Amino acid sequence: MEVQQALQKLDQLQRKQQAYQHAMGLIDFDGATAAPSGAAANRGETLAILGEESYKLATGEETVALLDGLYANLNELDEVQRKIVRNLHEEIENMRRVPMDEYVAYQRLLNESQNVWHKAKETNDYALFMPVLEKMIAANKRLAGYMKPGLPTYDALLDRYEKGLTREKCDSFFHVIRRELVPLIHAVSNAAQVDDRILFGHFPLEQQKKLSDYLMEVMKLDRAHVGIAETEHPFTTSFTKYDVRISTHYHEENFSYSMFSVIHEGGHALYDAHPADNLAYTVLGGGVSMSIHESQSRFYENIIGRSRGYIRLIAPKLRELFPQLSGVDDEALYLAINKSTPSLIRTEADELTYCLHILIRYELEQQLFDGKLSVQDLPGAWNKLYKDCLGIEVPSDREGVLQDMHWSGGLFGYFPSYALGSAYGAQMLHVMKQTVDVEGALAKGDLAPINGWLEKNIWQYGGLYDPGELLAKALGAPFDPMYYVNYLKEKYSEIYHL
Predict the structure, then answer these.
(1) CA dihedral 23, 28, 30, 32 (to 10 degrees)
(2) What residues does each domain of the chain span?
(3) Options 2, 45, 206, 265, the catalytic residue
(4) Is 265 among the catalytic positions?
């Protein structure tokens, strides 16, 4: 087969794969947002059938021959084509190591696990979730062994979400975070505390939904291609750059929870909606890794969303929607939104203490996959780390080990991406400020220059470059977590007069 003919078949293959992923993704999204609770079993059967067909398409003889042929002729391909072929060739080699019956069984298990987790969290019943969590851990150990037989299990899981990431690199990063931020957190805890009572009260859901629409407009999210829904645990799903869905969860007693969920998920959506057009419908059409993805969501949520400039920008809308804020000035809003205090819920954690929530999960995951911690003992270990690291008691499993959806979705090795992404974003800000007047853009209420820098340096490339390559291009220097540390030290020392 000639190379050009093979490339045409490759395009057809990717569009078919995209169609299956689109269908399966829509079913998952519906299950997490609007589907009735009794539909889980039916949804699981549908996903299993689609998963089996997708597996056959990806690992069939015709596909294998096509990719082997193109892989042997990489020198005749352009940069994008080479990357697509390399990625698909690696993916197919990984998938072929997984027995089809195990792949299909895992699709069913995922659906069951997420459904059981929802029920367990709702009823504060960890015992209900425990058996399926054991199955999830065992299945992910087997899958890691199939796909990355040369790597330690937890390294294989980390590599799944950030190519080249290892436990050694994570340990080094978290060592810096613990060494530099724990003393700052203690100093803040001992300082005069910020009053954040203005964030609590009664904030009608309809008004909060109007705020969501406004925030998406400020971020310049194209509502023709980016939708929003409600769910228990906010997340973003991208089917293609032309169809991205974010979700949020509203609390009537606190408008800021959903506000920052929308900004966070909006950052993911901006990334997913802006790869170059020639990458659409290919394996390069989404973000390159979860740490890079989280760098975008955490950048908008914290570095932009919690900045003085951004609070000044949206304060008039907050006062318009919520009359109880009419007498609150911009500085009081800024201080309240940036109050730092140890808390139970990761998604509600302040910018300074957030990484300790990730550190706790990282340490627990390692122990689970090393066999040093049983699923039965997980809640006790969780509660102990929260006491040791954040000095707080965990009153229930709903507010503790059941709070996150990630383990029910098989996302082991994912959590470090939140902390790494936060740190990447701080270094991106440092570089961005060399050519972009960030404060000036916020003062004008126009995020276009900020979005433009990110599109030029991050978004347009989709998955074309590996995370390390992309960071090197964007930052012009190696990643250094001290940019993040210094950003937090400067911000919180000023807020708390340290």
Answers:
(1) -170
(2) 3-150, 167-495
(3) 265
(4) yes
